[in-house]
Design a protein that fits this description.
Radius of gyration: 25 Å
Shape: elongated
Order of helices and strands: HHHHH
Structural class: mainly alpha
Number of helices: 5
Largest sheet: none
Strand content: under 5%
Helix content: 40-55%
Distance between the termini: 55 Å
């Protein structure tokens, strides 16, 4: 899709976004029980590539039970600190009445 504004109807009728095209094809195949031949024809896939997509989808569901194939969970807020050990060091040093850094940098 280009940068011009489109209507919601145009968005849902479009297959320009690859991930949306894959979602719609799998939806028709699994949910609407359309044949592989019909889905492949409708979405511009070969039957073989559609079966590859269904294989990858099934494999993902089997191996990644908590992670969605299409939609990513968004975590709001700060990202967790990678070095929690340093934080504990600073807190422990402060509890002992000291500072994490002295004049000598130690």
């Amino acid at each position: 899709m280009n940068s011009t504004l489109i209507t919601p109807e145009e968005y849902f009728n479009s297959n320009e976004l690859v991930i949306k095209k894959q979602y719609d094809a799998l939806y028709d195949f699994f949910r609407n029980k359309k044949s592989a031949e019909k889905v492949a024809e409708d979405y511009g896939y070969t039957v073989k590539s559609l079966y590859s997509l269904t294989r990858d989808f099934r494999k993902h569901l089997k191996e990644n039970s908590g992670e969605d194939f299409f939609f990513k969970n968004v975590v709001y807020g700060r990202k967790p600190n990678k070095d929690e050990g340093f934080k504990e060091f600073v807190v422990g040093t402060r509890e002992d009445g000291g500072s994490c850094c002295s004049k000598n940098g130690v």
